[in-house]
Specification:
homodimer, 171 residues, mainly alpha, 2 strands, 61% helix, elongated, DNA-binding
Amino acid sequence: MQEVRLTPTSYIVLGLLEFAGESTPYGLKQLVSASVGNFWTLHHAQLYTEPERLAKGGYVSEKRERGGRRRRLYEITERGRAALDDWRREPTAASLGELREPALLKLFFGADPAAIAAAQLPAHRAKLAEYEAIREGMPDNVPRGPRLALEAGIRNERHFIEFWEELAEDG
Amino acid sequence: MQEVRLTPTSYIVLGLLEFAGESTPYGLKQLVSASVGNFWTLHHAQLYTEPERLAKGGYVSEKRERGGRRRRLYEITERGRAALDDWRREPTAASLGELREPALLKLFFGADPAAIAAAQLPAHRAKLAEYEAIREGMPDNVPRGPRLALEAGIRNERHFIEFWEELAEDG
DNA sequence: ACCGTCATGTAATCGGTTACATGATTCT
DNA sequence: AGAATCATGTAACCGATTACATGACGGT
């Protein structure tokens, strides 16, 4: 069992394994794109390498199917649950995320605001529509966390739309 | 002259070199932390490696001081300016950035909203105050791009503050 | 003189991204 | 039956982060 640093990617995998129980990398991929992938994308290859990393640290256990495709099955361990709990509890990471919006970078370095806005608006509007559709179709048993995250995403889109709208016309 | 892929980091370096003229890595570091670093952080080591990479692609030129510390001096080339212009012009990158807010991730995976909010609020308020101070002290000759980016940053902080405030008390 | 911090840089590591591959299904 | 897409995985590369260093300079 080796020392393994836990990154946001790690917690996503742990969180999903906690939620869904034993899963294959491909199953995780499905879960991601249906949930947290909306605001934090992972490449599918990471869902093969990250569980393997976590297994090295004892945060998840690995099994392989005997017959057929011999797919790998991962399950969160006690150690994994503990790490996840610690992470959830510790809000000390008062460090903020960064905007890191490519369009803002262009704006910063002198791109034409109206042109950028014209390209950004449809994309943000589409994203907003997507979020709202998810919200409408959301079953009652979905827990509060995802609901709140979705709400944050919706507001974020609204604000960006507002921002770019102001720049779309102006001179 | 080799093939070099241009990343957001590349454009930051190019943009700053265009703005400031010939600079050393350390000079770039200063520039970053005084400007774009507010919403897009770079590690100082990148300001040594990235210009070198760009030099390989012919986007910047490299000189070394003859005496003393023999520091490296970088300057944007015609090719560099052209690449920067293309990037600014092409708004095709309709792909949106991602929220990627660690606090939202915790929320998503079940952290206590009030606890997270309590930690996030002071941080966001401090950041907002910092932005507003920058805005107050901003000389008149600062171009529109940075102004708009700052404006976006300020609004973003306000919205997050609002969001976390709602969660700070609730049950 | 000493200490701390700013200035300046190199090297190693590692996570993330891209590219490459190939069975299995489903559709026409 | 063939084409297209989904499912499933491996491998290489590369940019980003971390760690390691050392000289200059201002203050006590």
